[in-house]
Amino acid sequence: MFFELDEDQEQLKDLMRSFLQQESPEHTLVQRTENSLERPHDVRVFDRLCAELELVGLAIPEERGGSGAGLVELFVVFEELGRVLYGGPLLSTMLAAELIVTADTEDDFAELLGQLLAGAVRGAVAGLEWNRPSGLTASQDESGHWIVSGVSDYVFDGTDADQVVLFADSGDGVRCFLVDQPEALERSAREQLDLTRPVGRIRFDAAPVTPIGSAASAAGVRERVVAVATLCITAEQVGAARRCLEISVEHAASRTQFGRAIGSFQAVKHRCADSAVLVEAASATGLHAAWALQQDAGQQDPVVRSAKSVCSEASVKVAASTIQVLGGIGYTWEHPAHLFYRRAITSRQTMGTTWQHRDDIASQLFARG
């Protein structure tokens, strides 16, 4: 199958790159992580991404207030965000909106959805762990109101989100809920290798919640949101790996040793060539997953798993190779190479590890006989 971006998708890619080069330039990466470890992103960038580019609703249907674009366009956007290691609340807010749109077929949460799409409210999704129990349990108290207890260990933008939606085990299966009093939740920032994306831990102690959608559809909603989240992480991995390749090639062409550019030496040349192969393979696999998921939601499990495993390994290998090509400067705090490597290692563990996905794909294939 041959696939390439159409004219509109290329324009979207160019728009995103131009915007991010202006608003989130690479040379400020290290400075931002040094000055604000808890929030290493510019809040104004998120506001503009929502208000001017309307990215939260990019893949949301037009009849629900979104732009009506597809998952390929979403992949293009997050690939560009990955190039600059953007770590703001766009992903978490977009996933919260995706949960509401998918679960709330009666449009009962239209006001909250509108606030999320406009960026007026930052959202977070708890209980989003891949292919394992969410760690949250839901039950009804004596008055019949729903409450949730437990801990969600890894929540994108969990410490700063204005509203929290979640998946919890209700005893009869998973259910979707909106937290009634998010300001009362016990939240804490997680220390992690990646310095560019804040992640929180949220403890729920009989927190009052409101169900979103029906119990019958909740499992499908969770599968959809998990698949979209994994696809976005995959796109970021491709973007970051592509930027690492560019850094390697630029350095190899400009750095000289023994009167020659180091890129002329076979060892460096082959390292860059190997990285280029990995980046193109990751990009092709990721775009295919976005296209396949857009065409048939029933394919979300195998294609997204495959893309995540391929892109995870590619991003780590390319980031590590970039540090080697850079030599001494690649090991310094002042150069952003270590931030790309940190993000690559962390993203490999996010939304399912490489070997978890490969084991599950193998199990599915063996089960078919």
TrEMBL record:
Keywords: FAD, Flavoprotein, Oxidoreductase
Record-annotated Acyl-CoA dehydrogenase/oxidase N-terminal domain positions: 7-119
Residue stretches making up the Acyl-CoA dehydrogenase/oxidase C-terminal domain: 231-365
Source taxon at top rank: Bacteria
Pfam families for this protein: Acyl-CoA_dh_1, Acyl-CoA_dh_N
GO MF: acyl-CoA dehydrogenase activity; flavin adenine dinucleotide binding
PANTHER family: ACYL-COA DEHYDROGENASE, ACYL-COA DEHYDROGENASE FADE28
Record-stated family: Belongs to the acyl-CoA dehydrogenase family.
Protein name (Swiss-Prot/TrEMBL): Acyl-CoA dehydrogenase
Lineage, top ranks: Bacteria, Bacillati, Actinomycetota, Actinomycetes, Micrococcales
